[in-house]
Amino acid sequence: MHTVQAARGQGVASAIVEHLLGMARDRGLTAVNIETGSMGAFAPARAL
């Protein structure tokens, strides 16, 4: 997922992830995995 510079820091990515996790819970899923890279540019994704 990529958030454009103008929208960063406004909770867009967190809101999307929370929505997806809610959908997973509603469907009875017990595990959700997110894959990120290990480079520095992926640090915000890992922090979610």
Q: Overview of this structure, please?
A:
With 48 residues, the chain is an all-alpha fold. The protein has one domain (5-47). The protein is built from two helices and no strands. The chain has helices at 12-26, 43-47.
Q: Over the alpha carbons, how many angstroms does the gyration radius reach?
A: 12 Å
Average pLDDT across residues? Answer: 88
Order of helices and strands: HH
| Share of residues in strands | under 5%
Q: What are the salient characteristics of this protein?
A:
48 residues; mainly alpha; 2 helices
How would you sum up this structure in a few lines?
Helix content is 42%, strand content 0%.
How are the SSEs ordered, and which strands pair?
Layout: H1 12-26, H2 43-47
